[in-house]
Batch of 4 targets.
Target 1
Amino acid sequence: MLFLIAVSVLFSLQYQYWQGDNGRAGMALLQTEIDAQQAANNQQLTENKILRADVHDLKTALEAVEEHARLDLGLIKPHETFVQLSTAPITHSVQQAAPSNPDDVVEEVPDPL
């Protein structure tokens, strides 16, 4: 009788260890969540370092302010010519028959991106 009680207690403890809420399976799930959060934290730290360096450059260097004005706002200096080159492929549409209504003419415009 005492042996059966000991075996049942052992099995219940093993069940709790392997299948319980705070058991081995739950620990594996929590570990994957911790790893994913750690990866997200590391990525955020990298982005924060880049932003801190950018803020430092903007506070100390006039060239950084000029660079942001040119790239982000499209500003140019007086007497300066702005040239923009497109890398979009050129497509030509060939129409087989002329449309009877001029409003039916559709022009293909290449996507600028």
Target 2
Amino acid sequence: MDRFERIYKQGVVTTMEIWVDRETGVQYLFHRDGYSGGLTPLLDQDGKPLIETEV
């Protein structure tokens, strides 16, 4: 079983994806535009990581 699971994808060349770490439940946003991209955890209004409850 893979540790990370993509739960959302938007776009083709420029994409935004949401990934979940199956061990911790933390959600991450991945943004790609051409040959560049970045990954960051999604945070709630208090600055704490969003946790997927159904991992």
Target 3
Amino acid sequence: MTRRSTAFATAFLLAAGLYAATGAYAQKADDAFGVWLNPENGSNIEMYKCGDLLCAKILKVKDGQKTDDKNPDAAKRTQPIEGLVIMADGKKSGDNKWQGSLYNRENGKTYSGTITVKSKEAIDLSGCVAAVLCRTVTWTRVK
């Protein structure tokens, strides 16, 4: 082996080792299914299959909100927060993305939302009022 081919082989092996060490893999939209922690209020949200769609519901809250008291529909303000479906129309919009409507129990508003799988342990949840007024929060998987 020549010096040049040895250097190339070494560089290739180092790059391959670095790739493997970082745990890099192709994120998949289906990696969104499971239970996630919302870091802003400590609630646990389950994302699950509902037909070909992604649905999400609140499993547990830590901030004391017991009912959907901010709901714009007065008839729904007494429904419990735990078990509340906050997304029922998530459609796969890419290899690692879902898009649909997200209900925010804290203010009773519904936003256009995107869930992007960053890794098996993290997703980005983005909610938008208009295409230019968006906010993104990273959620982590509950173990």
Target 4
Amino acid sequence: MEMPKPIYESLPILYVIGGVAAISTVDSFMSFISGILLGSSGIIIMFLRRNHRRSEIL
């Protein structure tokens, strides 16, 4: 199953925004941990996609 390109490209940004929202809005330890995990996974996905695209060009 393939996702539409605009949705696929925007998912890591939404992960980071969701992580920041989870950290900043709820004052519980689990919310903080969930926000850190969600935000860091979005950043990791962005880096992996960037590296893969660079390797395809070369």
